[in-house]
């Protein structure tokens, strides 16, 4: 350590100008060189380093500002999405309630229309049965009437002679003529 302090002390004892010599003390020359290099770096590098740090600081601040803006936009979009979700959920609930009530209404309409259709079919069936009964009764009446008429004609043919037969026909024609007038 004494060599280092001696080298600083010996700086004041440099020979006068015109002579040139080598300092063989490596530690002293390295310290001097380092201090000169550090001094030059600090003097000239301070502005460059300050500019680099300022630029880096501005980029970081811009990145933070952009991140905050993006965060604000994301929060706003999230709130909009939540609002839309609530609205869609309410609409879905409304559709669900309307759907259930519509299904119930359709079910009741179907039951009512089926009931009406069954009543109509029952009425048609009853009418068809009554019609078929009337038709059967009419067919039976016609057969009975035809048989009675044939029996009466047979009886009349055997009982009537030609003259009585002509008088009956004339009387019947006269009655028919009176009815048509």
Automatic annotation (TrEMBL):
<keyword id="KW-0793">Thylakoid</keyword>
<keyword id="KW-0406">Ion transport</keyword>
<keyword id="KW-0066">ATP synthesis</keyword>
<keyword id="KW-0472">Membrane</keyword>
<keyword id="KW-0138">CF(0)</keyword>
<comment type="subunit">
    <text>F-type ATPases have 2 components, F(1) - the catalytic core - and F(0) - the membrane proton channel. F(1) has five subunits: alpha(3), beta(3), gamma(1), delta(1), epsilon(1). F(0) has four main subunits: a(1), b(1), b'(1) and c(10-14). The alpha and beta chains form an alternating ring which encloses part of the gamma chain. F(1) is attached to F(0) by a central stalk formed by the gamma and epsilon chains, while a peripheral stalk is formed by the delta, b and b' chains.</text>
</comment>
<keyword id="KW-0375">Hydrogen ion transport</keyword>
<keyword id="KW-0812">Transmembrane</keyword>
<dbReference type="GO" id="GO:0045259">
    <property type="term" value="C:proton-transporting ATP synthase complex"/>
</dbReference>
<keyword id="KW-0175">Coiled coil</keyword>
<feature type="coiled-coil region">
    <location>
        <begin position="71"/>
        <end position="98"/>
    </location>
</feature>
<dbReference type="GO" id="GO:0009535">
    <property type="term" value="C:chloroplast thylakoid membrane"/>
</dbReference>
<comment type="function">
    <text>Component of the F(0) channel, it forms part of the peripheral stalk, linking F(1) to F(0).</text>
</comment>
<comment type="function">
    <text>F(1)F(0) ATP synthase produces ATP from ADP in the presence of a proton or sodium gradient. F-type ATPases consist of two structural domains, F(1) containing the extramembraneous catalytic core and F(0) containing the membrane proton channel, linked together by a central stalk and a peripheral stalk. During catalysis, ATP synthesis in the catalytic domain of F(1) is coupled via a rotary mechanism of the central stalk subunits to proton translocation.</text>
</comment>
<keyword id="KW-0813">Transport</keyword>
<keyword id="KW-0150">Chloroplast</keyword>
<feature type="transmembrane region" description="Helical">
    <location>
        <begin position="26"/>
        <end position="49"/>
    </location>
</feature>
<dbReference type="Pfam" id="PF00430">
    <property type="entry name" value="ATP-synt_B"/>
</dbReference>
<protein>
    <recommendedName>
        <fullName>ATP synthase subunit b, chloroplastic</fullName>
    </recommendedName>
</protein>
<keyword id="KW-0934">Plastid</keyword>
<keyword id="KW-1133">Transmembrane helix</keyword>
<dbReference type="InterPro" id="IPR002146">
    <property type="entry name" value="ATP_synth_b/b'su_bac/chlpt"/>
</dbReference>
<dbReference type="GO" id="GO:0046933">
    <property type="term" value="F:proton-transporting ATP synthase activity, rotational mechanism"/>
</dbReference>
<comment type="similarity">
    <text>Belongs to the ATPase B chain family.</text>
</comment>
């Amino acid at each position: 350590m004494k060599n280092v302090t001696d080298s600083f002390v010996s700086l004041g004892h440099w020979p006068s100008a015109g002579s040139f010599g080598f300092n063989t003390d490596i530690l002293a020359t390295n310290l001097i060189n380092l201090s000169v290099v550090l001094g030059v770096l600090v003097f000239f590098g301070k502005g460059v380093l300050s500019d680099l740090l300022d630029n880096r600081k501005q980029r970081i601040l811009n990145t933070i500002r952009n991140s905050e803006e993006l965060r604000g936009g994301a929060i706003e979009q999230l709130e909009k999405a939540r609002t839309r979700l609530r609205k869609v959920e309410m609409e879905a609930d409304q559709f669900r309630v309307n759907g259930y009530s519509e299904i119930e209404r359709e079910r009741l309409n179907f039951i009512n229309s089926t009931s009406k259709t069954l009543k109509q079919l029952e009425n048609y069936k009853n009418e068809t049965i009554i019609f078929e009964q009337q038709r059967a009764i009419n067919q039976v009446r016609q057969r009975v009437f035809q048989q009675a008429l044939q029996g009466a004609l047979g009886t009349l043919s055997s009982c009537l002679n030609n003259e009585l037969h002509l008088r009956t026909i004339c009387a019947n024609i006269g009655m028919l003529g009176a009815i048509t007038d």
